[in-house]
Amino acid sequence: MKKSLLASALAALTLAAAPAAQAATTSSFLFLSPAPAPTDMPSPTDMTSPTDMPSPTDMTSPGATASPVGPGCASLPTSGPGSAASMATEPVGTALAANPELSSLAKAVDAAGLTETLNSAKDITVFAPTNAAFDKIPKEELDTIMGDKDKLTKILQNHVVEGRKAPADLTAGPLTTLGGGTLTVTGSGEDYTVGDAKILCGNLQTSNATVYLVDSVLLPGAEASATPSESAS
Asked: Measuring CA to CA, how many Å separate 104 from each of 100, 131, 159?
């Protein structure tokens, strides 16, 4: 009788333990199974860069794609000081000083104390007389001008106008200089004249200005680019 009761108790315990073991096994498999990846995450192919961001080639400086115009452009150095590529990286005062054909102008700008003024200016156009242009002025008269800072400053200001002027802008009307005078430009294509001075090569870009090389000095109070003795007569 005791053995029968003991056997019945063991059987009952075995049957009760089976579902618990099965549940434990199932729970362990559920715990170890990896969680599925979220279905709303973008795939790598969807994570493209924004299409409205400018490429490096779009972020160019003003005037970087402008082409020089004028019969004298062919004589410009192809590289180094005085070349279009070199001028484009520098402010205008520094660019003029580095150009071998503009050493007389650079000397005048320095004597007037205008180098930093030109370098700090924003968006201007400079008509830059070459060395040959200064050579047209008799030496004694040029020495007198160079020794008179106020007069020299006035003359140099007569070569600067506000705004970057492309060739097509030059003939739109008289240009008002920083010295308060006016300059009239005529011509088209590769042939332009400012006053009586020929533009040898223009539309040259610096970091803050557009430059036109001219063959005569432009004097205040006269459209003509005469020497001081001619303008007084």
From this structure: 9, 5, 14
Identify whether the C-beta of residue 184 lies closer than 8 Å to the C-beta of residue 223.
Answer: yes
The verdict on residue 108 lying in a domain is yes
Q: Which residues of 15-54 are buried (b: 16+ CB within 10 A; e: fewer)?
A: eeeeeeeeeeeeeeeeeeeeeeeeeeeeeeeeeeeeeeee
The order of strands in the sheet holding 191-194 is: 160-162, 124-129, 209-214, 197-205, 191-194, 185-188
Task: Give a yes or no: residue 7 inside a domain.
Answer: no
Q: How far is CA 141 from CA 204, 206, 217, in A?
A: 30, 31, 13
> Considering the domain boundaries, does residue 111 fall inside one?
yes
List all residues 6 or more positions away from 139 whose beta carbon is below 8 Å from its beta carbon.
none
CATH of the domain at 170: 2.30.180.10
Tell me the residue range of the domain where 72 lies.
68-217
Q: Dump pLDDT digits (tens) for 148-197.
A: 999 999 999 999 999 999 999 999 999 999 999 999 999 999 999 999 89
- The structure's pTM equals 0.69
Among candidate residues 232, 222, 231, the one with its CA nearest the CA of residue 179: 222
